[in-house]
Every structure is written in structure tokens, then in C-alpha cells.
């Protein structure tokens, strides 16, 4: 009996010593004992309306992970990218987020999605205390303790586009249209507010179901209204091409401004989007050392299989780097600590300097561009660094 008591006391003392030694370790040291990979889940629309751009998103993430791992990884651990299909919608996002968190034990989710998918997935990440870096431009004001956005919001790209079309293209009477979901309606609301602010008028406003590809009825309404110009905001990817092909086939010639197109989509559509004006925070034509290095590395890695980098895919690259830098600085993948550290992280990448602020959004460089006859995009001018405005004041 005495021997068992002594043995129990010895084990208890040993346990206490282990606990005390762990407590005395510097912050992050316990985390660094885990040498397994740091898992980054990428739930993205590999099927559905975002399937045009989703492969480019995955490629940007793969390059960032490869580069970081080649330098030793983060805290001595490799990064592992896990792409998942969110089917470009809320039901698929619920499945993809749950799979990422429960099956793959994702440390973070970094991805571009439709707003419908984001709105379905974000609460799952929040409940699971999983950091979510959303890398898609969107309609603004999505807020959560563990949700960060490193892409543009309407306050950054709508006013420059509307002002350009008003001043340079003499558009006073507008027709607005979009996909019937949060992003489509949110962007058109921002456009309407800006248009009214510069003395313009809205002759018509129409929305199309997200998966619908026939724009004939809306194009007929455009013809009847005879506006000076068009402003549209569809879901990213396919709907942009569907609308522009049918618009051109109808013989309509008025200037068109897009709040949702990207370089890859424009290129995929050939000459369908020729002449379309749009604003954004990233274009392959940006002439800076970081972008040249990024494009060279993408070409080397993916060769003929490269999907044109664009404003929906490049922020994935920035997001992975920002996360890696935050984990390294915090010394841990603990979400509570990363939420405090991320607003201090500055990553200078292909877009320029990007830093998410205390409201979990980022000031970004904004540019005006136009789609050319071959589907390629030409940058026309820079508006400099543009603030995202008051997005999530409760997070200050």
C-alpha cells in the first residue's frame, strides 16, 4: 500500500513538473512542438458559377504555399493547402466548411467565394474558432471576430468607375442590372447612390437568378429604356460572359461598366467583353517588381496550365502570406492571438502594400482598366491607395 502511494506521489510530482515546465515556455513554444502541417482550407467554386475563376484561386494559393515551404515553412512546420468545392453556393459552402474543419482539421480558411457561400460558411468558422480570410471583392460590411477581408469593397471601386463614366463617357442616364443575391444587389445599391450623388438618373434596375444564363428579357428592357450607359454586377465568372455575349449580339453600343468582371473571365470570353470598363485592385499589367516576380513564378510553376491571375485570385496569394507572417509573429496558430496580430501585418506583394486594419478590411491601390478586343485587359489609370471606409466599427 505504501509503495503504491509513493508511486502515485512520484507520478503526480512528475506531472506537476511537466505542467510547470510548459507554463514557463515562451509564447508559441508549446504550439511549435507540433510538427504536423498547418492546414489551409480553400473552399471555392470548383463547380457552379465561380468555376471559371476558382482554378486560378487555387493556383495562387499553391504558389504561396510552395514558396513559404521552400523557406522552411512556418514555426518549423510545412503549410498544406486543401482545396474543396463549395459549388459556388450556400449549401455547398456548408458542406465544404464542415469538411474543412471536422475532417481536415483546418487551422485556417483562406478563400474567394460568392457572397452567398461566404454568408453560409462564415458562421461555421466563427463557431469553430477557425480564422477565415476572405479574399474576394464583395458588397461590404461582413463582420466577425475571426473574419478578415483583404479584397475591395464598394467604397473603393464604385465611385472611381462611376465618376470616370460620367465625366469621360458622358453617361447621365443609367440602366443597372445584376445577379439576384447579396453581391449583385449590394453593388448596384452602391452604384445607385454614387450615380445620384453626381446628378445621374437610373432608368431601369433588373436582377437575374444566380444560375440563370438567359438575359434576353433584361436586354429587351435595356433597349426600350435607351440609357446612356450600363452598370452591372453579376456573380463572378460565367454570368459576366453570358450577359456580355447576349448584349453584343443584340447590337447595343452604349458604354458598359462592370462591378464584377475580372481578367480571367474577360479573357475566357474572348471579344465578348470588349470595351467594358472596370476598376480593381490587381491587374497582370501592373509594373512593379513584386508583380513581375509573382507572374514569372506562376508561369514557371504552371506552364501551359496557368490560369490568368486576376483580382479574384491574386488576393489568395497575399492572404496565405499574411496568415503565415501572422502565425510566425504570434508564435502560434491560436485564433485569439492571430486576431490581435493580423492588423499589424504588412505584406508587400503583386498589388502593392496590403495591411488589414482593426476593422478587418484593407486600404488598397485602385486602378481603372478596359477589356480589349482579344479579351486582354489594359490598365488605363491609377487612383492611388483608397480607404475601405467604415466597414465594421464594432471591431475597433
Strand/helix succession: HHEHEHEHEEHEHEHEHEHEHHHEEEE
In spatial order, strands of the major sheet run 7-6-8-9-10-13-14
Can you identify the CATH class of the largest domain? Answer: Alpha Beta
Mean pLDDT: 91
**CATH fold-level assignment of the largest domain:** Rossmann fold
Query: Low-confidence spans: pLDDT under 50, at least 5 residues?
Result: 1-33
Q: Percent helix among the residues?
A: 40-55%
Number of strands: 14
Would you identify the CATH H-level superfamily of the largest domain? Response regulator
Intertermini distance: 60 Å
What does this structure look like?
- The protein is α/β, with parallel strands linked by helices and 396 residues long.
- It folds into 2 domains: 32-152 and 286-362, 3-Layer(aba) Sandwich (Rossmann fold), CATH 3.40.50; 155-280, Response regulator (Rossmann fold), CATH 3.40.50.2300.
- It has 13 helices and 14 strands.
- Strands 7-6-8-9-10-13-14 form a 7-stranded mixed sheet, sandwiched between helices. The protein has a 5-stranded parallel sheet with strand order 2-1-3-4-5, sandwiched between helices.
- Helix 3 runs parallel beside helix 12 (314-330), helix 4 runs parallel beside helix 5 and helix 6 (154-167) packs across helix 7.
- The chain is globular and about 65 Å long.
Short description:
The protein has 396 residues and is of the alpha/beta class. The protein contains 13 helices and 14 strands.
Amino acid at each position: 500500500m505504501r509503495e503504491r502511494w509513493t508511486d502515485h506521489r512520484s507520478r503526480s510530482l512528475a506531472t506537476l513538473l511537466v505542467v510547470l515546465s510548459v507554463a514557463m515556455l515562451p509564447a508559441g513554444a508549446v504550439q511549435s512542438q507540433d510538427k504536423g502541417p498547418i492546414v489551409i482550407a480553400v473552399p471555392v467554386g470548383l463547380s457552379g458559377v465561380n468555376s471559371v475563376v476558382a482554378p486560378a484561386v487555387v493556383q495562387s494559393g499553391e504558389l504561396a504555399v510552395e514558396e513559404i515551404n521552400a523557406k522552411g515553412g512556418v514555426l518549423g512546420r510545412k503549410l498544406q493547402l486543401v482545396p474543396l468545392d463549395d459549388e459556388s453556393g450556400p449549401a455547398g459552402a456548408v458542406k465544404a466548411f464542415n469538411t474543412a474543419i471536422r475532417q481536415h482539421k483546418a487551422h485556417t480558411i483562406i478563400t474567394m467565394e460568392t457572397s452567398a457561400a461566404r454568408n453560409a460558411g462564415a458562421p461555421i468558422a466563427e463557431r469553430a474558432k477557425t480564422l477565415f480570410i476572405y479574399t474576394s471583392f464583395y458588397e461590404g460590411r461582413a463582420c466577425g471576430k475571426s473574419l478578415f477581408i483583404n479584397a475591395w469593397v464598394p467604397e473603393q471601386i464604385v465611385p472611381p468607375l462611376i465618376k470616370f463614366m460620367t465625366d469621360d463617357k458622358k453617361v447621365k442616364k443609367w440602366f443597372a442590372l445584376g445577379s439576384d443575391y447579396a453581391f449583385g444587389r449590394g453593388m448596384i445599391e452602391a452604384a445607385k447612390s454614387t450615380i445620384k450623388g453626381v446628378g445621374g438618373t437610373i432608368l431601369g434596375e433588373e436582377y437575374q437568378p444566380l444560375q440563370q444564363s438567359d438575359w434576353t428579357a433584361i436586354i429587351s428592357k435595356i433597349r426600350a429604356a435607351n440609357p446612356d450607359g450600363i452598370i452591372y454586377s453579376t456573380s463572378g465568372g460565367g454570368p459576366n460572359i453570358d450577359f456580355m455575349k447576349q448584349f453584343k449580339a443584340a447590337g447595343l453600343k452604349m458604354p458598359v461598366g462592370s462591378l464584377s468582371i475580372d481578367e480571367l473571365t474577360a479573357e475566357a470570353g474572348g471579344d465578348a467583353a470588349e470595351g467594358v470598363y472596370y476598376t480593381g485592385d490587381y491587374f497582370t499589367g501592373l509594373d512593379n517588381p513584386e508583380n513581375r516576380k509573382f507572374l514569372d513564378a506562376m508561369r514557371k510553376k504552371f506552364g501551359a496550365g496557368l490560369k490568368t491571375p486576376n483580382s479574384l485570385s491574386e488576393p489568395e496569394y497575399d492572404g496565405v502570406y499574411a496568415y503565415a507572417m501572422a502565425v510566425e509573429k504570434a508564435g502560434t496558430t491560436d485564433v485569439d492571438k492571430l486576431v490581435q496580430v493580423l492588423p499589424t501585418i504588412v505584406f508587400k506583394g503583386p498589388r502593392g502594400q496590403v495591411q488589414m486594419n482593426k476593422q478587418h478590411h484593407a486600404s488598397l491601390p485602385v486602378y481603372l482598366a478596359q477589356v480589349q478586343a482579344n479579351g486582354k485587359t489594359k490598365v488605363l489609370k491609377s487612383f492611388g491607395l483608397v480607404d475601405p471606409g467604415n466597414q465594421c466599427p464594432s471591431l475597433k
